[in-house]
Amino acid sequence: MNILILGATGRVGGQLVTYGLQDGHHVTALVRTPEKIQIKNANLTIIQGNVLNKDDIVRAMHGIDVVISALNTDGTNTLSASMPLIIEAMEYEDIQRIITIGTAGILQSRTTPQSLRYQSSESRQKSTRAAKEHHVVFDLLKQSTLQWTIVCPTYLPDGERVGTYRVEGDFLPQDGVKISVPDTAEFAFSQIKSIDYLKSRVGIAY
Question: Which of 79, 126, 136, 165 shows the smallest number of beta carbons within 10 Å?
Answer without folding.
Answer: 126
